[in-house]
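Why RDD family protein? Reviewers of the renewal asked for a concrete example.
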Amino acid sequence: MAGGEAETVSGPVTGEAVALELRPAKLLSRGAAVLIDLAVTWLVFLLVMVGVLVTTASLDEAAVAAVSVAVFLLVPVGGPIAVETLSHGRSLGKWACGLRVVREDGGPIRFRHALVRGAMAVVEILLTVGVVACVASLVSERGRRVGDVFAGTLVVRERIPVARAPELAAPEPWLAQQVNGLDLSSVPDSLWLAVRQYLGRVRQLDAQVAAGMAGRLAEELAVRTGVSVPAGVPAGSYLAAVAYERRERERRKVGALPRGVAEVEVPGGGAGAVPEARGVGGEISPAEGGGGGEGRSGGQAGTGFVPPV
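Here is what the prediction returned.
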């Protein structure tokens, strides 16, 4: 708040008073998605109409006209409605362009949203060749056509490059000693994920909202570890220190693993050494010894027996 005026947020807001980062689709990408959907829809419509005309050749003109109207309502009008309902706002064209139809609050659409969009698309896109939809999208702040306004929906981009999480800075030495002995084995992955998300977006949150979220996360960490937050330490700093400590433990654990398979030490020899096999009387057996040649004259190979001279 500055100058006595409250700052307003035009986008959807969650229960934590955090604005959702919905990225509306551009007009060009929406137009490309519509062209793909129309091409597929009319191809299916023509194939169905050919089949209908072949099967209804024996009927009179009134019956053929009624069937044709029914096919038109089912395929070009009902088809997109069914596809958006079943796919939760992602038709073939939107899938190809990385788009999706969502509610204004960011949730998935339902049948009533798809029905309103499909009914208005007959006027906006089919009857006016898309002129009304283009003008409405250009005028709208978030690129919404008339069907989106009446249905309470928004076409957003799904394929957004994910920004790399900020690197955790090492905490102060005295704070590092406080968290060094914590038992983090009982902390679930969901809580670690919440902590990482908070640390990555703390600069984008309102100060009071950030403080409240940090306090709740720190309390839950204290319950899991069995150690309360040190007195005088801000909850956000404590979360950053614990997250840094966990990351360092994981790095040390990975660094302590052996790089290769250790050699097996054989008793009586060096690493990998094999003791010599000797026969009776200490003679080396030709089959097992290192000579590789024949034994003594008249001796049997591999028995260790030496005949008298």
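The first strand starts at residue 99 and ends at 103. This is the kind of structural detail the renewal will allow us to pursue systematically.
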